Every structure is written in C-alpha cells, then in structure tokens.
Task: structure prediction
Amino acid sequence: MRIITPIPPEELKMILKKSNAAVRLEIKEAKPFHGMPRYEVIISGNKEEVEKFMEKLRLARAGG
Result:
C-alpha cells in the first residue's frame, strides 16, 4: 500500500510501534503541498497487519 502524508517519519514510526503491526514502512520525501512537507510511505505486510496499522494511524490522527 502507498500513501502520501504530512505526518513526520518519527511520528509514523511511533504509531507503528504502538500498533504492534508486523509491517515495514519505507518513507521517502514527496513534493511539498502548499509549503507543507509531505512523505510518500510504502507499507509492506499482509493485508490484516496493514489494516491494523492503518486503523491505529487513523485513530492517532483523529485524536484517539
């Protein structure tokens, strides 16, 4: 799975650790959007583990 996000790499790694998901993140810089840095993130792992990480990511960004 590939996503583009403004979430800093350090925060993504922290969310991954909290999620306990068995996925691998490959983080690259992407083009800025209205001056805000963005990152291209490739998430590798089986479908269930990727969904586990993405759910934790959604909750973290929504204040959960």
